[in-house]
Design goal:
306 residues, alpha/beta, two-stranded antiparallel sheet, binds 3-hydroxy-3-methylglutaryl-coenzyme A, binds magnesium ion
């Protein structure tokens, strides 16, 4: 199959990247990261989540971050909202501070659903349905994240049929597009392709994105495997930040820098300026007191230093 000629990347670093961070990260730093990402050419940014601050303390400043960002025309800003309470909090601000898109997040694994959002898959869909309806009614777009589509930290391998089942449920409540997530980064190309295939039975390829954590170093090759199926939306974190607090041992998302380096090397357009993106990753890594977790960033910075 012919590969896509352009790819759209969602940088999920400010949310997925930082949610698990134990040290406090100020709203100002988070806002600074969003600004650097949009200046680097990212057209979609997952900014924060409206979840319980008891469960995820790092995201407690959600409203402050949404208030503080300087919006760039043409950029889509999304936030996670697991229930009506989260959705109402996301739209409590004046309309110009509303997210352009909200994300409901479910799992293909029952055990992960319980650990992450404290309810079964069926209950989660019941909770999401009014959130989706309210968002669409207000002209806010809706994405559905599907966790554990190849493997689960509690249940092990996940059958593609479970992914198809969740995709069907998401479609049924009006979710417009979905993320096929490898939450713990255990997937390998054929397994990821099977999860994508199961999702394609319910969503158009343009409405599917790949969300690969890089725990086992498979995220780039899994990206290529999805590209080969025509998928052209992917999620990644600058500097490879992140991990889900309810997926012990799972490391960050694939680094946006590494994905962009691969895509540009294949002649695939992203609209992203890799040098500026590397600087954004250095900015957030310095704030966290560590090196960017991106091989491309390291190699290019070494070259820059001459
Ligand atoms: P719950 O305890 O079942 O909720 O949590 P509840 O409705 O029973 O309410 C209990 C308390 O939480 C109440 O407060 C509510 O007001 C409050 P209290 O009366 O005890 O003071 N509450 C909230 N507060 C703020 N915002 C809300 C909210 N909802 C209830 N939205 C809940 C259910 C979903 C809220 C909880 O389990 C939670 O917040 N979980 C966090 C999940 C999370 O953020 N996980 C990480 C993101 S997902 C991810 O990383 C995966 C992804 O990247 C894809 C992949 O890689 O797989 C997307
Ligand atoms: Mg994730």
């Amino acid at each position: 199959m012919k590969l896509p000629t352009r790819v759209k990347l969602v940088d999920v670093g400010p949310r997925d990247g930082l949610q698990n961070e134990k040290q406090p990260v100020s709203a100002e730093i988070k806002i600074g990261l969003v600004h650097r990402l949009q200046d680097a050419g990212l057209k979609e940014i997952e900014v924060t989540s409206f979840v319980s601050p008891k469960w995820v303390p790092q995201m407690a400043d959600n409203a402050e971050v949404m208030h503080g960002i300087r919006r760039k025309p043409g950029v889509l800003y999304s936030v996670l909202t697991p229930n009506m309470k989260g959705f109402e909090a996301a739209i409590a601000a004046p309309r110009e501070e509303w997210p352009d898109e909200i994300v409901v997040f479910g799992a293909a694994s029952e055990a992960f659903s319980q650990k992450n959002i404290n309810c079964s898959i069926a209950e989660s869909i019941e909770r999401f349905a009014p959130v989706v309806a309210a968002a669409l009614e207000k002209g806010i777009r809706v994405r559905g994240a599907m966790s554990c589509t190849v493997g689960c930290p509690y249940e092990g391998e996940i059958a593609p049929a479970k992914v198809g089942y969740l995709a069907q449920l998401m479609k049924g409540i009006g979710v417009q597009r979905v993320d096929v997530a490898d939450t713990i980064g255990v997937g390998t190309p054929r397994k990821v392709q099977a999860a994508m295939e199961a999702t394609l039975a319910h969503f158009d390829v343009a409405a599917i994105s790949g969300h690969f954590h890089d725990t086992y170093g498979q995220a780039l090759v899994n990206t290529l495997a999805a590209l080969e199926m025509g998928v052209w939306n992917f999620q990644s974190s600058s500097a490879g930040l992140g991990g889900c607090p309810y997926a012990k041992g799972a490391t960050g998302n694939v680094a946006t820098e590494d994905v962009v380096y691969m895509l540009h090397g294949m002649g695939i357009e992203t609209g992203i300026d890799l040098d500026k993106l590397i600087d954004a990753g250095v900015y957030i890594s310095e704030a966290l007191g560590r090196e960017p977790n991106s091989r491309a960033s390291k190699a290019i910075r070494t070259k820059r230093a001459g």
